[in-house]
Amino acid sequence: xxxxxxxxxxxxxxxxxxxxxxxxxxxxxxxxxxxxxxxxxxxxxxxxxxxxxxxxxxxxxxxxxxxxxxxxxxxxxxxxxxxxxxxxxxxxxxxxxxxxxxxxxxxxxxxxxxxxxxxxxxxxxxxxxxxxxxxxxxxxxxxxxxxxxxxxxxxxxxxxxxxxxxxxxxxxxxxxxxxxxxxxxxxxxxxxxxxxxxxxxxxxxxxxxxxxxxxxxxxxxxxxxxxxxxxxxxxxxxxxxxxxxxxxxxxxxxxxxxxxxxxxxxxxxxxxxxxxxxxxxxxxxxxxxxxxxxxxxxxxxxxxxxxxxxxxxxxxxxxxxxxxxxxxxxxxxxxxxxxxxxxxxxxxxxxxxxxxxxxxxxxxxxxxxxxxxxxxxxxxxxxxxxxxxxxxxxxxxxxxxxxxxxxxxxxxxxxxxxxxxxxxxxxxxxxxxxxxxxxxxxxxxx
Length: 446
Description:
CATH superfamily of the largest domain: Zn peptidases
CATH architecture of the largest domain: 3-Layer(aba) Sandwich
Radius of gyration: 23 Å
Strand content: 15-25%
Order of helices and strands: HHEEEHEHHHEHEEHEEHEEHEHEH
Shape: elongated
Distance between the termini: 5 Å
Largest sheet: 9 strands, mixed
Helix content: 25-40%
Number of strands: 13
Protein name: Putative hydrolase
GO molecular function: hydrolase activity, acting on carbon-nitrogen (but not peptide) bonds, in linear amidines; metal ion binding
CATH class of the largest domain: Alpha Beta
Enzyme class: hydrolase
Binding site for Zn(2+) 2: 112, 147, 405
Number of helices: 12
EC number: 3.-.-.-
């Protein structure tokens, strides 16, 4: 899928910030939520709260407690997604949802996903405290296992509700210790064999909105507080195994070596070179993980496992890049005399988000007096998956220095509050409109 052209940039004149309907987020509550969730981590720098661990479950319980206190009906589905609902006044009306995820990468930041959850919870607080009665139910969704750091596949909780991942996949995906995703889910009291029960019915939903940190520097460099996302990049993730011969570094002459790491080094540079090539403008290719065995200073590496991530907003170019990289990798292996095999970990197409819903978010920003730009997302998100079954929209708030997936990740509470005000305005505005428009059907992307 290729967008029709470069993302449009639109901004309103700077005006004093103030939500049109008086739903003003409280920065102190947002800060308290963020601070508490940051304590739910393994020891070490940043936040480490991996998918389907007790720490992830603890974070979900915290969100559930906040929502239960508001009188919301809260449940956890069979695969670990937490769903809370404030009822609407019209029986049977489809819900307007918002949320994100609470798991992290190892030594990650305290805002990725978390900002969207605390924003969605804060909207629930504002609606309850103000006595705002919506016709449609308002649902907060905290997705499980959005990060692919542990099992290689991103957005597992949202993929399941969209029907993109099933029970068989959960038995196939493993972490570095050989634990299957299904085993990890059972260890925290979930029921992967019943994953089909978690699938959403499109008739139950009007729209789903996700606030997220940008994880890039476009907003900060443009001095803008808000992004409205039009397209989300696709991602193809591969595991490549190179098999050489482990032998003594002193006893093995250079011309008799089969060095798996030397071959891997070529592939790392090849991935970078492909993404820089003018034919791949907009492609991002990364080797984010190298496992070197046996890993001894005086032993030539006999086996290297690489984790490769290729992203693009153009579906055809994304897959062409992957094919070109694999062809090159196979050639390097033959030339260097090492074995080569690969397996696909995950493959997700780019998604163009519904134009009618994007227009609703733009309208909310303008009514709130918040300057914005329409922009793409280079990262994958839960909205990308649920858009298969319900129209999804995304708001970005700035990331300092564009950093994410690192302890240095930072977005100010004031920036999150401003984005939350627009989110609240969008929810109330969509509820009043009762529909998104003729172009609002969920688009699965291809």
